[in-house]
């Protein structure tokens, strides 16, 4: 037990040491509240729930400790967790929204504390109901897991506040003690996807579950434990113990252990006698009539698309995209005023009608865009070029025409221009690029002969005779375009009639 007391004292010392960092995280998250309210159209009850979550300093410290006290990393993951809570409507996962079969039997409940004042969470797997046929087990059990974890978070923060008000030394209680009873447990789910879902949920509540004690863990569950070890981190596996019933008094006072676990407490759980679920998770919040959508500015959440326009059936309604600001209130793009929403919607429609090639090219420098376009034209077939011509003049060509007119007007009299040297340099650059493109085009056109020419250069010493033969080959190709595929071997034989160097 000395190990747990020591860890409790160390946790309180670390909390005091990083109080300024906790204040910084709290202030940074508070600055994000107006943007979250505007983005998700939160109700008053949801705003109050969000403020209560942000005021939970124990949770802020757990995020900080989980990320090695890195303030930017902890803040980004905390903000993403807040967005996940809003999108998944975590504050409304309460008693009415949890399946009745989970609360009909003493499956999972909180009762008393251990010797270091950690709340005890008891899980009786014998009362675990089976998922209905055709129902995903992970989706079936996820609301219950969130329901329990959210109750644990609120219970821990209330315990910390009560101990601080009472002036108790080392008041911060940051984790729970979990007792998992495998007695009479029947068909337990063995899907590794279910375990991965649980691990993902636990990352939203870092450090809430402390030591996990597996009781009555027989040899028939060794396969289940081996599968759990595949998805648990080394830190999580170190917190798992396999005590006997006679070892529990080392952790918990004997009069605080229920009779089913070998103690003296005669408490029998039921929802009517539960003191924690009815206190923290009773009743639902009013849900606004909007659809929750995540923003593309999320760092940790697995969504990246957010709509720019919201078109209604009666007319066009434009809303500012939720990703106009970063997670730290940094504008991602200029927010210049517009004359009306209808004008902006028309611009958005016109932009959506552009081809993907035009959209990608609009952000490139003109000269670089021209080079890429010309290279792409050379690599396309004649059939694709004909279909492009039938579609009309593309936007990139109009842009290049305007750019060429502007360049010609600027370079019409380089001596009078103050930047005549730069104009001369740009002209040289354009000439060099034009020559390079012509060479690449010739190489692509005569690629059937280029390989044999290189082979002759590697095998032949007579340079003068080699050049003469190359000119003859080129003339033959120009006069007989259809003979490009057959000229290779005959040309190699005609070029290698002299001495060779191998």
From TrEMBL:
<dbReference type="InterPro" id="IPR052432">
    <property type="entry name" value="PITP/CRAL-TRIO"/>
</dbReference>
<dbReference type="InterPro" id="IPR036865">
    <property type="entry name" value="CRAL-TRIO_dom_sf"/>
</dbReference>
<feature type="domain" description="CRAL-TRIO">
    <location>
        <begin position="95"/>
        <end position="269"/>
    </location>
</feature>
<protein>
    <recommendedName>
        <fullName>CRAL-TRIO domain-containing protein</fullName>
    </recommendedName>
</protein>
<dbReference type="InterPro" id="IPR036273">
    <property type="entry name" value="CRAL/TRIO_N_dom_sf"/>
</dbReference>
<dbReference type="InterPro" id="IPR001251">
    <property type="entry name" value="CRAL-TRIO_dom"/>
</dbReference>
<dbReference type="Pfam" id="PF00650">
    <property type="entry name" value="CRAL_TRIO"/>
</dbReference>
């Amino acid at each position: 037990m000395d190990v747990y007391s020591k860890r409790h004292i160390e946790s309180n010392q670390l909390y005091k040491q990083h109080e300024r960092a906790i204040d910084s995280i709290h202030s940074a998250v508070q600055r994000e509240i107006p943007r979250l309210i505007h983005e998700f159209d939160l109700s008053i009850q949801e705003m109050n729930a969000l403020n209560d979550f942000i005021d939970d300093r124990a949770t802020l410290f757990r995020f900080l400790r989980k990320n090695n006290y890195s303030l930017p990393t902890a803040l980004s993951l905390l903000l993403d967790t807040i967005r996940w809570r809003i999108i998944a409507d975590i504050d409304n996962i309460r008693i009415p929204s949890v399946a009745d079969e989970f609360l009909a039997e003493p499956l999972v409940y909180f009762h008393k504390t251990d010797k270091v004042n950690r709340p005890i969470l008891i899980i009786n797997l014998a009362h675990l109901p089976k998922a209905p046929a055709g129902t995903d087990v992970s989706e079936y059990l996820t609301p219950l897991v969130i329901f329990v974890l959210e109750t644990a978070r609120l219970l821990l923060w209330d315990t910390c506040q009560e101990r601080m008000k009472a002036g108790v030394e080392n008041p911060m209680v940051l984790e729970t003690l979990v007792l998992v009873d495998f007695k009479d447990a029947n068909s337990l789910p063995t899907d590794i996807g279910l375990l991965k879902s649980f691990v993902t949920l636990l990352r939203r509540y870092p450090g809430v579950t402390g030591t996990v004690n597996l009781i009555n863990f027989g040899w028939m569950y060794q396969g289940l434990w081996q599968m759990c070890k595949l998805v648990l981190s080394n830190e999580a596996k170190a917190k798992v113990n396999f005590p006997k019933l006679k070892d529990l008094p080392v952790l918990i006072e004997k009069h605080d252990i229920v009779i089913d676990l070998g103690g003296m407490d005669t408490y029998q759980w039921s929802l009517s006698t539960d003191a924690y679920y009815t206190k923290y998770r009773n009743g639902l919040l009013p849900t606004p009539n909007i659809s929750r959508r995540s923003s593309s500015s999320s760092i940790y959440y697995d969504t990246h698309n957010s709509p720019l326009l919201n078109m209604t059936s009666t007319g066009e309604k434009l809303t500012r995209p939720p990703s106009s600001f970063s997670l730290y209130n940094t504008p991602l793009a200029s927010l210049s005023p517009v004359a009306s929403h209808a004008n902006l919607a028309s611009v958005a429609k016109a932009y959506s009608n552009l081809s993907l090639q035009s959209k990608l090219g609009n952000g490139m420098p003109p000269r670089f865009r021209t080079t890429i376009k010309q290279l792409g034209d050379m690599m396309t077939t004649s059939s694709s070029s004909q279909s492009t011509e039938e579609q009309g003049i593309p936007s990139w060509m109009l842009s290049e025409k305007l750019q060429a007119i502007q360049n010609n007007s600027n370079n019409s009299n380089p001596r009078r221009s103050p930047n005549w040297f730069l104009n001369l340099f740009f002209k040289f650059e354009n000439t060099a690029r034009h020559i390079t493109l012509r060479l690449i085009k010739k190489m692509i056109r005569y690629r059937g002969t280029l390989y044999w020419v290189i082979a002759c250069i590697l095998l032949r010493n007579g340079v003068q005779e080699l050049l003469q033969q190359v000119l003859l080959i080129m003339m033959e190709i120009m006069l007989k375009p259809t003979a490009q595929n057959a000229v290779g071997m005959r040309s190699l034989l005609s070029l290698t009639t002299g001495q060779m160097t191998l």
